Amino acid sequence: MSTPDDREDQAGSMSWAKKLMTAGVGTFFLTEDALKTLVSEFKLPKEIVSSILDGAKNVRKEFMQNVIAEMMAKVQDKVDPSVLIADFFKKNEVSFEIKIKVKEKTENEV
What we know:
Elements: H1 4-29, H2 32-40, H3 46-78, H4 81-91
Helix pairs in contact: 2-3
């Protein structure tokens, strides 16, 4: 039979496990400030907190780069950019206007 101390230890372990899972999932979805607040609850040394936050930034950046690359690959499979651009110029008249104004400086400005 378990003692009250055993149940407290189990509850404490479950609480820590729940917080760790939240921090792991939060890496993707929480803002940096919210993640800092969550990690600060663990009362870890600043170096470890900094390492966790840096890791979260890197994971989020790599994840977004992979999502963007995958999306671009899917779009390029369906649409040929050169055909799209050629079609645009075929259907539209494009003009560029450049205006340059030169003004001589006065002796006081030189």
